[in-house]
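ok so heres the complex, two chains, lmk if somethin looks off
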Amino acid sequence: MTEFDLAKCPPDALMTKTHEWIRPDPDQPGIYQVGVTDFAAGELGDVVFVDLPDLEKDVTQFGKLGEIESVKAVSDLFAPVSGRVSAVNQALAESPELVNQDPYGGGWMLRIEITDLRELANLMTPQSYAEFLRGGVEH
Amino acid sequence: MAVEELRRTPLYEVHKTLGGQVVPFAGWEMPLRYRQDGRGGDVAENRAVREGVGLFDVSHMGRVHLWGSGALSFINQLVAFDIRRVSPHQARYTVMLNEKGGIIDDLIVYPFADPNHIGLVINAGNREGDLAWMRAHQDSFNVEIEDETVETALIAVQGPEALAVLSKLTPPSFIPPNYYHFADGVMVAGAKALVSRTGYTGEEGVELWIQAGAAETVWQSLLLAGKDFGILPCGLGSRDSLRTEAGYALHGHEISPTIDPFEAGLGWVISMDKEEFIGREALLEIRSQEPLRRLAGFRTFGRNAIPRQGDMVLFDDEVVGTVVSGVFSPTFGVGIGTGFLMPAGLARTGNEVEIIRGAKRFEAEVVVPPRFYRREKS
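and the predicted structre for the whole thing:
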């Protein structure tokens, strides 16, 4: 098993059971940045392509957002919250390896304009995510 | 589902120490990939083998000895190739068939200098089944079947620099001079080894069959000897992308008990002129008819188009097959895969097909046989 490194995870990130993270964009109120955790990146192995949604697309919490292709497998990417896609990380088209190298930074995948902040309550804090991975309480 | 006890190879702890991501595979806990400086591992490991050298623990593979005056006639009854034509110290890849001509397993047969001794390397996931099949057909043959898997280890050193690395640990004159040949009783890093010029990567290389107790020392010595060549420990992930690039079949994918060797493109591992072997009658029947399907390779045109097992293959908007193996090829930077095409006539290099998975649809070029990579022989 690969590991989730709590120390590397931004403290304001919230996680899904499907290993996406979401955190507020400091410069744009109401906009949240989304990516996958270092645990997910480690489990996937080298990411070779990220299939992201179109801009302006409306997404539903826990609905499918896109696909992450690694050498060996393809995995679904799910929306941590409902909202509208306001940006996608263009750098991933050329450098999908950023997902492995810097999952909480340069490896971000998209920005979502969140519609209902209450949905954040359905997510896990980094601490509870770490416990979830250890097989403990879910959230 | 009952939780099955997973076996560990003698190198399990070493893999953990090296940052190996250990996963269950064919009843064993095996390294999938190693953490390579924050990268995912699969690409770096593939590249190490293509350009330098990589080290694999393949101790999960089954290692079996056949002893006795009936060893040769016994194995010749069980496998499709005529082993009488294989010289001592030559290694031979072939298949073991069921009565219907389906592939029970693919394996390498090692006839030793002692005519009463033959070695076999079989698939991990088929070991129990293969042994049961062998014992069920032991009949009156004077042969003893000895499964040595747990007592030994198998380490593969693969890549253009593999022989240079091995030469640092054993006199070069002891290394078999030709591909698909082996030498036994060779001292490697102080341990007695069977050195076989074989592998599953499409590169030059050797596989070392050693006692379990020597595994750690040999492994560490190889890592150290390979340091100047950029050696990397490699896991199942890169093993799979390397073998797919090289066009090697994986049991359960390109070959299985319901797939015959002709449709899998393995006619070359069969001696149809051998008077008798299990599956021969069925193969004669199969060969007398038009083939229904044929194994083909698929090469896509981008990294965003990777065939995956279970994807459908279309030709002129008709479903003509299913993908049985699919990976991103680190060597070529595109998707590659294999699958059986029906009708068999579609399996021709250059044909264009489409692959679909859910809403995703992309083009691919057919490659037959499905060999995407071929090393330049020196």
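quick notes: Chain A touches chain B at residues 1-2, 41-49, 51, 67, 69-74, 96-97, 100-101 (CB under 8 Å). thats all i got rn
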